[in-house]
Request: fold
Amino acid sequence: MKHNYIYHFVLIVFLLTWACTNQHQKAAQVIETESSTIEKYRPQYHFTPDSAWMNDPNGMVYYEGEYHLFYQYYPDSTVWGPMHWGHAVSTDLVHWEHLPIALYPDSLGYIFSGSAVVDWNNSSGLGTKENPPLIIFFTYHNPLIVKAGGIDVESQALAYSLDKGRTWIKYEGNPVIPNDGNRDFRDPKVFWNEDIQKWNLLLSANDHVQIYTSDDLINWTKESDFGYDAGTHDGVWECPDLFKLKVEDTDKSRWVLIVNINPGGPNGGSGTQYFIGDFDGKQFTADTKDTKWIDWGHDNYAGVTWSDVPKEDGRRIFLGWMSNWDYAQVVPTESWRSAMTIPRELSLIRKADNYLLKSSPVKEMDMITNKARVVRVADQMIDGEKIIDLHEVNLNQSRLNFSFNIGDSQPSLFGFIFENELGEHIKLTYSSIAKQFWFNRTNSGDVSFSDKFPAISVAPFEINQTVYFEMFIDAASIEVFVNDGELVMTEIFFNSEPYTQLKVYAEGGAIDLTEGAFANVNSIWE
Ligand code: FRU
Reply:
């Protein structure tokens, strides 16, 4: 009887919360469509939640013409809290439709990060071969165990959908991987491994990655650990990913292991390291144990890749959370917090004696690049500062391409300054002496909310003669791709007014701007 009473109480609370959340979302949508431009700092072509708090991208999977994007979500506040999985779908990786929350916390805990797959052959038995289940793997994080000071806080669980991801059923035998004694034990990434005809699961456990195998997605066998003696260990390892990529212009393939780490990133706080190596289905062996970074800016974290992208397409598509745990919860946005990066295609190239993982904007970004508003410039020698004539292009929502020849007059410094009338600016500099890029946001606008925000990111890079930049600016972020993604820097900023002026500058020698093309990017919500 008592049980029944509690059940009804819980049901009523649940329904009320659901009704409020839904209403809240509708209200936010109205604000968005009617006045998206007056919501300060709201990106126009990056994914953001309608309202409230968002962190990691989760469960990215492609199925029946739709890219699913789930995300760590707390609908009741603009700071982190009991985690849900928010949900959106897209047919083109660019325009998104918000769907209802996919997973709510329950008595086993909050719903932490994870992945999703299509169980094509119904090896789990949770669907049928004709209607294969979509399966989500996530971490239960139990706040009651945290409160009691226990260690076994985190375990791995699954949920499945038989209706194209519209509704989700939590598996009754959860958790499928119980806690193993590691306090940090989370973020399962699952994929079908053709080579061994089995499923693999990776998770991060404090300072290393664990690798599992399974035939049915439910019973998992631990095979190995990776990373005790590799990579950076200045923080906790989180959100791993593992996939095979063809090395460009060869018939060779290598495995790429992504491991997020916080803190300990390349310029402080959160960052994403990767390793190149071999994987026999049970054990990953890195070619070298040093750390490589997928992005040298402050604001690309918890990134992983889409599962089940059709073979004919063949791309490995990555998306990251465009923030940093150092300040994510105090940035000055009002009704929501955080955006995702633009989706990026990963590719592997050989550079000098190393492999390098390139990230470039997905080609779908062309669809929203406003061709009617492209401005082109050609061949200009720049010595000192030069204001670039952008004509009609709105810097605040733009895509900019620049090619330079640094030639014989090799300037000691050159770069870009984005500025508003108040003198607030961001500055990207290349030093040919240090062979580094510096991204400076110390005078970018409001930097008062965190001591860690006003900072300069440093990234090593060698330019030989020519260099090509592609930059995406959207309200409060910039993503810089150098030489088609050989180096990437993603940074957010909070200027009091939009930047309206762009300068290119060179010191200690002139620079040849061989070509430039600047375009407006359309809003994805129109
Ligand atoms: C990474 C992370 C994950 C965890 C989630 C919790 O940002 O800490 O390791 O699952 O966020 O929201």
Notes: Residues 55-56, 72, 83, 112-113, 139, 186-187, 238-239, 302 surround beta-D-fructofuranose (CB under 6 Å). Confidence is low (pLDDT under 50) at residues 1-37.
